[in-house]
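Troubleshooting log. The previous structure file for this entry was overwritten by mistake, so regenerating from the original sequence record. Sequence copied from the archived sheet and checked twice against the printout by T.R.
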Amino acid sequence: MEKEKKTNYLLMGIGNLGNLLIGLAAMRLTSLLDDSTGYGLAFAGFLLVIIYQDYLEKKVGIQNRERYISRGILVIVFTVLAFVLYSPI
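Regenerated output below.
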């Protein structure tokens, strides 16, 4: 694999990790404060950041298949961590 492609994958992973951490922090904050308005705003902002990141990944030249796999992994990890960390059980 060429060096530029490896760098793109590394940066894509760092961006997804950042999105994951921001999403989990928003979940924690809204669960502690029981703030439905804050949850809605955090969710909307989180979606907008993901849309913008997807746009940037298109501009860099990352293929659709790789972007979808990356997003799928992000959604699965986020869902599992959100349930494990913030479930009322």
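The mean pLDDT is 86. Archived copy saved in two places this time.
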